[in-house]
TrEMBL record:
Keyword Transport in annotation: no
Enzyme class: transferase
Keyword set, alphabetical order: Hydrolase, Metal-binding, NAD, Transferase, Zinc
Residue span(s) of domain Deacetylase sirtuin-type: 1-247
Listed InterPro entries: DHS-like_NAD/FAD-binding_dom, NAD-dep_sirtuin_deacylases, Sirtuin, Sirtuin_cat_small_dom_sf, Ssirtuin_cat_dom
Organism (species): Candidatus Atribacter allofermentans
Matching SUPFAM superfamilies: DHS-like NAD/FAD-binding domain
Residues binding Zn(2+), per UniProt: C131, C134, C156, C158
Active site: H123
One Pfam family named in its UniProt record: SIR2
Name under which the protein is recorded: protein acetyllysine N-acetyltransferase
Molecular-function annotations in GO: histone deacetylase activity, NAD-dependent; hydrolase activity; metal ion binding; NAD+ binding
E.C. number: 2.3.1.286
Length: 251
């Protein structure tokens, strides 16, 4: 067995022995569903757009036409995707007592669609939108229809501007972030597919006592992690799942 596989085997044992784990996912777990991540060289979204320019409260409040002409279509591409093997394995691990819950920076709802029950979406989601004046909630499909009918910026019947329920640059983080920081102080943390460069999301791994990382590239937290598996999320999780199934049979 190669050293590489030996390490992955030991990582699987570590996962099994210290279960249940809290999972923190970033855009890297959804690239295999066809959604570009943000910071991978060449393919990352922020190589094409300046996030502060298009997905910020500054632009939404002061240039809603720019937000809805440029930013909104970028957001809506996240809704085309379907869960991949990695999302599916994590949902299975939750039902097998290996995962306590998933904290995700992703707004694509793929963990929920894959069957994960306990999901904390700390950057919001793309299922609904709300009026910034009267706070009425509507479905994102309704908001999309307003934008498609070139009602830009889309307005509520009270006259207020409507916005998607994602966390934009400049927004306060939702209450799920505080829940996430509490959860990660009680259970070991496995990070999957995040550069861990964005604060305050990267406060989460700094609070973890036990840390494991699965990522294509290195992260600022690699030195803190007991195991760092550099590779694709679905490939790594599939290998770990096969090893854990052997341990489950022996248990
Ligand atoms: N498997 C594992 N890792 C992957 C894969 C893959 N298939 N594809 C990409 N990666 C890794 C990349 O190497 C990168 O380190 O996932 C990481 C993705 O990092 P980012 O693009 O920075 O995405 P993320 O960490 O989720 O960004 C956090 O920044 O712009 C904000 O709100 C946005 O939620 C986002 C936040």
């Amino acid at each position: 067995m190669s050293l590489h596989n030996e390490i992955q085997k030991k990582a699987a044992e570590h996962l099994w022995l210290n279960r249940p784990w809290v999972i923190l996912t970033g855009a890297g777990i959804s690239t295999e569903s066809g959604i570009p991540d943000f910071r991978s060289p060449q393919t990352g979204l922020w190589n094409q757009y300046d996030p502060m320019e298009i997905l910020s409260t500054e632009v939404l409040f002061n240039q809603p036409e720019l937000f809805y002409k440029i930013g909104f279509p970028v957001l809506m591409q996240f809704k085309q995707a379907r869960p991949n093997l990695a999302h599916g394995i994590l949902a299975g691990w939750e039902s097998r007592g290996i995962v306590k819950g998933v904290i995700t920076q992703n707004i694509d709802s793929l963990h929920i669609e894959a069957g994960s029950k306990r999901v904390l979406e700390i950057h919001g989601h793309l299922r609904t939108a709300h009026c910034m004046k009267c706070l009425r909630t509507i479905s994102i499909e309704k908001l999309e229809s307003f934008v498609r009918d070139v009602q830009i910026p889309p307005r509520c019947r009270c006259g207020g501007i409507l916005r998607p329920d994602v966390v934009l640059f400049g927004d306060m983080l939702p209450s799920s972030f505080e829940q996430a920081t509490k959860l990660v102080q009680k259970f070991p943390l496995l990070v999957i597919g995040s550069s861990l460069q964005v604060s305050p999301a990267n406060l989460i791994p700094s609070l973890a006592e036990k840390l494991m990382i699965i990522n294509l590239e290195e992260t600022p937290f690699d030195k803190k992690a007991a195991f760092v598996l550099n590779g694709k999320a679905s490939t790594m999780l599939h290998f770990l799942d096969e090893e854990i199934k052997k341990l489950e049979e022996k248990a």
